[in-house]
Specification:
It is a single chain. The strands form six sheets. The protein has a six-stranded mixed sheet with strand order 6-7-5-8-9-10, sandwiched between helices. 28% of the residues are buried. The chain has 23 helices and 26 strands. It is elongated and about 130 Å long. The chain has 822 residues and is of the alpha+beta class. It binds guanosine-5'-triphosphate (GTP). Guanosine-5'-triphosphate (GTP) binds next to α16. The site of guanosine-5'-triphosphate has 23 residues, from α16. This is Tr-type G domain-containing protein. Its main location: cytoplasm. Pfam families: GTP_EFTU (PF00009), GTP_EFTU_D2 (PF03144), GTP_EFTU_D3 (PF03143), HBS1_N (PF08938).
């Protein structure tokens, strides 16, 4: 922004110039004639030097000097012709004839610079003669600037006679070289800083004009604004506030009352002793006047600011003691609002009264109510006292004998199975296909998934997306957490627990496996894949299944389409896997093998279409599932234990939990205790396999709605039980562990279902005989892989665990042991 209104920058000039004096603007016919004539005249004046300047230089000069030929010639001489002359260097400088009386040794350059200093920028032709201006040969511009000096006539050589330096030896003489200076402006300004061009000046003038115009407009506007201010034109004495006048003790004389009109005449003001005092004696008045002279006020109209401060607005305003609150203008405002008891006061009074007296409207109070204010208070107190803080009534407990209800119920059996196996073995795809074949998922949904998956080049995962619902799972193409789904056949309601295969998510697999009655182990039959899996998560998952207590396994030999439904491959896998499983303690009768292609849907529900698989005449996967019984009998009569696998909080004050009932029974209206928080809650509703029921039993996966509990007391991994036989919480346990790796006192994580508790192996009590359980060695320093040992675990916090429960011990992302709490 310009520092003042006359300042401008390049942009300003550019814009103005461009608008009004375009560079390409052509000369008018008159200008053209003048230019032609001027050019000819200038050339004539320049004589033989005319060829040393260009037409443009001549015309520029003419244009800038308004066709003044002499000035243009002078300018051209000075600017182009003088500088075009060869500059004498010290070595090449032609020796001038030394003037008389002048030191022969004085060089041209030294003198040149001397005069340069004396005459400012002018420097030409000091030694030259014959230009008609004087012996110094000053150029016309200089001659104009220094008219007197140009007439001085000095005898040649006499000028420097008394100069001491003239006798300076040649070798001591300095050579002065004129410093370079920027070219001056066209108007012949100094050769110092470039001046403003004509166009710049015009632009600046135009800008100045605009600014002045704006200033005038602003002034007018300000005047208008001031007029709008509510100021009166009352006499000055009225506008000066009394307190101020009193403070200054200035009282204008009545006969000297200032007129309303502004005047520049000073006003005499008498100083009095008191505001109300009499006029003082003339002597005193003189003295007072002298004093007053110092405070004589110019009788000009007060400024807008002053009038705003001290003046009174027109129209009568009500006198106010205090500034009014903004809300007082409201129609609902009553000035007596606070002179009566507030509603709170009434409520508190009523509550105090209700504390002593039985509530309820009485005839007396109704009668009083008609008597105005007192009655109103009574009415309020009655209604308040009838209010009471009530908690939602607990849900009704029907007092059912749940075991009997379960036995006589004709409902289908409920079975949960976990799907395990190495990463990418095809677990999710298989479950997606199963749900599609059983019409629990529509074909168009799978088609939609396929279209979506195609965009990221993952169309082969379309069926897996039926189970893998999370965006991250779909992006990465891996299952991360347990995915739950349901389907049912004629006899059975199945709950699918699709586990992640990746080693990073083994804890989630443990959680899924701990909810399952049996497992589907998916093996990738493709060349090399099975072998890889058996070293990886196929092996770890089987170990975990066994540790958690899963006894029944259906082995789905998948992707056989990729090996041409090779019977040899199928047999090879059966042989190796069954040996591995029986080695871990699985009974052969509880293990079955099914050749399948999850992707194509072969042998899931329908038989294999490929003729290459005609050798197979066994059951389909679905048939194998139907024939799988839960590994152990339902612990219906044991105390209720339900591990919480998920918590959903609703805004209606209910909390919904999901999990599997490990043992016991429950019904709507039961009081439950959540461990380890110890908080109690009521069961509001129970959903088993999507059906709302009044009760649920061990082995069922349920969704419970709880009331009368703050959800902050409930976490995944907590245990629900009845208060009468609640699970205890502890932080140290002894367990009988099967070692999968070397065990020694070290930090570990304890896993049970969704419960993950950090702690450490505190001590190794003894190694035990696998078959009999007898002590083999007491207090060994380390337990070898494959051995069974009794160890003590110390956890960082108390957790709900009890004897007989199966737990898994992991360390550094590896499963190192599993076993039973003692
Ligand atoms: N050719 C063929 N490919 C299959 C078959 N089953 C699964 N696949 C492919 O194998 C890949 C992995 O399938 P998923 O179902 O995601 O494997 P997963 O075991 O669930 O993977 P994680 O849950 O991440 O361990 C996908 O590209 C599937 O299309 C099959 O029977 N035949």
């Amino acid at each position: 922004m310009p520092a003042n209104k006359y300042d401008y920058d390049d942009d300003d000039v550019g814009s103005d110039y461009g608008e009004e004096y375009g560079e390409d603007e052509e000369l008018s016919p008159e200008d053209q004639a003048a230019m032609e004539h001027g050019t000819a005249e200038v050339r004539k004046a320049l004589g033989k030097n005319a060829s040393k300047v260009t037409l443009k230089q001549i015309q520029d000069a003419l244009w800038n000097y308004y066709y003044d030929v002499d000035k243009s010639v002078a300018f051209l001489n000075k600017t182009y012709l003088a500088s075009a002359l060869p500059k004498p260097t010290p070595a090449a400088a032609p020796k001038k004839k030394t003037p008389e009386g002048m030191c022969e040794d004085l060089s041209f350059s030294a003198a040149h610079c001397l005069f340069g200093g004396v005459f400012g920028a002018e420097h030409q032709r000091f030694a030259g003669a014959g230009n008609g201006v004087g012996d110094f040969g000053l150029d016309p511009v200089l001659a104009e600037s220094f008219p007197i000096s140009s007439k001085i006539r000095l005898a040649p050589g006499a000028y420097f006679n008394d100069m001491p330096w003239l006798n300076t030896p040649q070798d001591r003489q300095a050579t002065f070289i004129q410093p370079w200076r920027p070219q001056g402006g066209l108007l012949g300004g100094s050769e110092g800083a470039a001046g403003m061009s004509k166009l710049q000046k015009l632009a600046a003038a135009r800008k100045k004009k605009n600014e002045e115009k704006k200033d005038k407009e602003r002034t007018k506007q300000t005047e208008k604004d001031i007029e709008k201010l509510s100021l009166s034109d009352k006499p000055l004495e009225d506008q000066v506030s009394a307190p101020l006048a009193k403070r200054q003790k200035l009282v204008p004389q009545p006969q000297e009352k200032p007129s309303h009109k502004a005047s520049t005449q000073p006003v005499k003001i008498h100083v009095t002793e008191e505001v109300t005092g009499e006029a003082t004696e003339p002597e005193d008045q003189r003295e007072a006047l002298t004093t007053a002279a110092a405070v004589v006020v110019d009788k000009a109209a007060p400024s807008a600011f002053a009038r705003t401060l001290f003046g009174s607005a027109p129209g009568k305003r009500p006198a106010r003691d205090v500034f009014p609150m903004p809300y007082t203008s409201s129609s609902s405002y009553s000035s007596k609002t606070f002179s009566e008891p507030s509603p709170d006061d009434i409520v508190f009074a009523a509550q105090a009264k209700a504390g002593k007296k039985a509530p309820g409207p009485s005839k007396t109070s109704k009668k009083d109510a008609k008597e105005g204010e007192n009655g109103r208070k009574e009415e309020l107190s009655d209604s308040v006292s009838s209010l009471k803080i009530s908690e939602a009534p607990p849900p009704k407990n029907k007092g059912l004998d749940v075991v009997k209800e379960f036995e006589k119920s004709s409902s289908k059996r409920s079975i949960s199975f976990v799907v395990v196996g190495h990463v990418d073995a095809g677990k999710s795809t298989l479950m997606g296909r199963l749900l599609l074949e059983l019409k629990h998922v529509e074909q168009r949904t799978v088609d939609k998934y396929r279209r979506q998956a195609e965009k990221t080049g993952k169309q082969s995962f379309a069926l897996a997306w039926v189970m893998d619902q999370r965006a991250e799972e779909r992006d990465r193409g891996v299952t991360i957490d347990i995915a739950t789904n349901f389907f049912e056949t004629e006899q059975t309601k199945f709950t699918i627990l699709d586990a992640p295969g990746h080693r990073d998510f083994v804890p989630n697999m443990i959680a899924g496996a701990s909810q399952a009655d049996f497992a589907i182990l998916v093996i990738d039959a493709n060349t090399g894949a099975y072998e890889k899996g058996l070293k990886g998560q196929t092996r770890e998952h089987v170990l975990l299944l066994r540790s958690i207590g899963v006894q029944r396994i259906v082995v789905a030999v998948n992707k056989l389409d990729m090996v041409g439904w090779s019977k040899d491959r199928f047999d090879e896998i059966i042989q190796e896997v069954s040996g591995f499983l029986t080695g871990l303690g699985f009974q052969e009768k509880h293990v079955s093998f099914v050749p399948i292609s999850g992707l194509n849907g072969d042998n899931i529900v329908k038989p294999i279409e490929d003729k290459a698989a005609s050798w197979y005449t066994g059951s389909s996967l679905l048939q194998a599932l139907e024939s799988s019984e839960p590994s152990s009998a339902r612990a219906l009569t044991k105390p209720l234990r339900m591990a919480i696998s998920e918590v959903f909080r609703s805004q209606q004050g209910t909390t919904t939990l999901s999990g599997r009932i490990d043992s016991g029974t429950m019904q709507v209206g039961d009081v439950l205790v959540v461990q380890p928080s110890g908080e109690t809650a009521y069961i509001k509703s129970i959903v088993v396999d999507k059906d709302t029921q009044d009760w649920a039993v061990a082995g069922q996966n349920v969704n419970l709605a709880l009331t009368n509990i703050d959800p902050i007391h409930i976490r995944v991994g907590d245990i629900l039980c009845h208060p009468t036989d609640s699970i205890s919480c502890d932080d140290s346990f002894t367990m009988k562990a099967m070692a999968f790796d070397h065990l020694l006192p070290s930090p570990v994580d304890l896993h049970r279902g969704r419960l993950h508790a950090p702690g450490r192996i505190q001590s190794i009590v003894a190694t035990l005989d696998k078959a009999t359980g007898d002590v083999v060695k007491k207090k060994p320093k380390v337990v070898q892989p494959g051995s069974v040992a009794r160890i003590t675990i110390k956890l960082e916090s108390k957790v709900p665990l009890e004897a007989g429960q199966r737990v898994v011990i992991r360390s550094g992302g590896e499963t190192i042991a599993a076993g039973l709490l003692e």
